[in-house]
Amino acid sequence: MSATGNSSYGTIRRSVLAIALALLLLALGSGQAVAGTSVPGGARTNLSIDGGTARLVGPEALITVACEGPRDGFCSGTLSFHRAGQTREEPFSVGAGSRESLAVFVGRGFAVSGGSAVAVARTAQAGGGLAQSRAVVRFR
Asked: 2.60.40.2550, 2.60.120.320, 3.90.550.10, 3.40.720.10: which CATH number matches 3-139?
């Protein structure tokens, strides 16, 4: 597939995920129950960043995360990398109690092997607001 085709697919994927996240946050703010986001008793969920490294694969950085919270909940929000005054951000949704690798589109010139960035995960809470976790990660 051409570079243009990959870029278009990535843009479409990010747009769909961003719209889903916006709808989730809108529903949470209005007090409506959203499937997979309501947590019994208002228990908190949080996305933790594991390992301190992000693996560069083409234009994306893969980072391992774990969703902490009740097993029937979800961690949904945004994962971003901050480096040299620039930010790269992607929406996520991960089932509670699981570990996954998330891909963040970083493009060219943002990350180099051996370089580092601050990773920030912001997780929407069932009762409103956001939980935030941070870690310094090294790109490899």
From this structure: 2.60.40.2550
